[in-house]
Amino acid sequence: MDIYLHFKNQTAEAIVFYEKVFKTEPAKIMTFGDMPHDDNHPVDESMKDLVMNANLKINDTNVMVSDSPEGMAPPLIVGNNVALVFNAATVEEASEVFQLLAEKGAVLLPLEKTFWAELYGMVKDPYGVNWHINLY
Question: What is the mean pLDDT of residues 10-39?
Fold first, then answer.
């Protein structure tokens, strides 16, 4: 299980801070500008330098971080900017876990193929916990 932290255009600054505090290796950073071009989801020039995903290893925990620009992610409210990440082993497991978490909860981003994962989706469970479901 991993942890995911979302920020409003402050992720690059947060990465520098956490690297210093926890003395981590430099984060591997992918920006929104690094995404493959997609006519259906164009990336605005103002978002190209924002962090789409970065990983920090703090002790033995993988902490992923991302900016959440308006229109590209659910609205960011401090308190919902922390999510748990479940890395599934199979399509069936990813689908079942996603479906069970979504029952009486809310689908934030449908479980579907992305350029970085076979399946990826975001869901809020009935208790208000945000989850990212991955199948690499």
Answer: 91
Dihedral of CA atoms 97, 101, 107, 111 in degrees, nearest 10, equals 0
Residue 136 near residue 89 (C-beta atoms within 8 A): no
Give the span between the Cα atoms of 76 and 106, in whole angstroms: 15
Computed on alpha carbons and rounded to an integer, the radius of gyration of the chain in Å comes to 15
Question: What is the C-alpha to C-alpha distance for residues 95 and 108, in angstroms, rounded to an integer?
Answer: 15
Work out the mean pLDDT of the chain and round it to a whole number. Answer: 91
Q: Are 136 and 87 in contact (CB under 8 A)?
A: yes
CA distance 65 to 17: 12
SS3 of 19, please?
helix
Task: Give the type of residue at 68.
Answer: S
d(CA 42, CA 8): 19
Q: Report whether 122 contacts 134 (CB < 8 A).
A: no
Does this model's pTM top 0.85? My answer is no
